[in-house]
Amino acid sequence: xxxxxxxxxxxxxxxxxxxxxxxxxxxxxxxxxxKETFLPLTLVLWFxxxxxxxxxxxxxxxxxARKKPVRDDRYFIPLLALVDLISCVVSSGTGIYAQTxxxxxxxxxxxxxxxxxxxxxxxxxxxxxxVIAVDRYLKLCRPFGRQMTLSVKRKVIIGxxxxxxxxxxxxxxxxxxEQVPMKLKSGYTIQTWKCIxxxxxxxxxxxxxxxxxxxxxxxIRFVVLFMCYGNIIRVILRQKKHRLRMGSVTSYTxxxxxxxxxxxxxxxxxxxxxxxxDEDTKETKENGIKNGINTPNIGNKPRKQCIxxxxxxxxxxxxxxxxxxxxxxxxxADRQGVRLAIIFILITFIYIVTFGPKVWLMIEQTxxxxxxSTIPQSQLLLFRFxxxxxxxxxxxxxxxxxxxxxxxxxxxxxRFTRCK
Length: 420
What we know:
This protein has 13 helices and two strands; from the N terminus they run H-H-H-H-H-H-E-E-H-H-H-H-H-H-H. It has helices at residues 27-37, 39-64, 77-100, 108-141, 150-168, 171-174, 204-245, 247-256, 260-290, 314-367, 377-388, 396-404, 406-419; strands at 175-183, 189-197. The radius of gyration is 34 Å and the shape is elongated.
């Protein structure tokens, strides 16, 4: 996270600062003028904050207020909502303070904590999306391979937070509130306070290495997400094509019970019954001959293909009777798994789109220390919007669940009905 604000050198053209005043213009007056310029962005950040808190709280309430434990395929959803909630509060709150105090951000402890918490929770949120992608990949692309058990998932959660702490700890050293002079075209120079990464030449190399490392980690996340969801999309399309091709066959087998497994069971039962019938016929003939009775050859008569249920062994009866229901339940489970995968594909796409501008601006700031000072005033608000656009990733998940997840909508309706 970077809360740096560097006003462009030509900003003084729009400031209503009388040049005839011999004294320096008050710092708070200039700060208020810039604050009014950033007012639209401040309102956007307030929108992020309200929607993020309400939406993510709703997700946690729906999943953690239920009597039954969270299902295996949705285990990470409430945890992701909790991380997004904290990240949204930290990033939006810090952004609002930075936009309303662009020149008087003089709280050193607040600056360090804002940078530290912003980096850790933004990273943890991204890593949760990464783990969810791997879990979806294993379930859909490797269904018969090793899966993530509950114990493994708990260890992964601990590992995510440990990695987040390691990646964000240097921010406590790099970022601080510094006094930075601001030159105006009118000839005045004012001393401002900003939360920035230190500019001393002694640690400049280390700061660049740290930012490059964060960039590499972000790129690795992008690559893994592309690989996992690329394979998932391929499997989904292949399954859809297979279902379309086998649609007529599936319709036929559902009505004629010509499933291979059922046929095999019926064949075995038929053979067993025929052998028993032959033995009974033979025994009947022998008894008839002994008693002087001519018994007709019953075994040569054609037998009906429909076998009474009482002739089925119990195990085979259960298999035959439950095969259809198991198939239907499996089909529903598959559709739910595919729908959930599509939901997370959309969430991941939004994450990449919202973090893309942030990564680009991070590169620009690393290569050019005076990047913000070179932006024209007419474009400054747009660039600042791109700089905070990644927060949208922390509020969009509940919106996607509400639109695409029927189970989530049903749970919300049930919870609110009970509350009423």
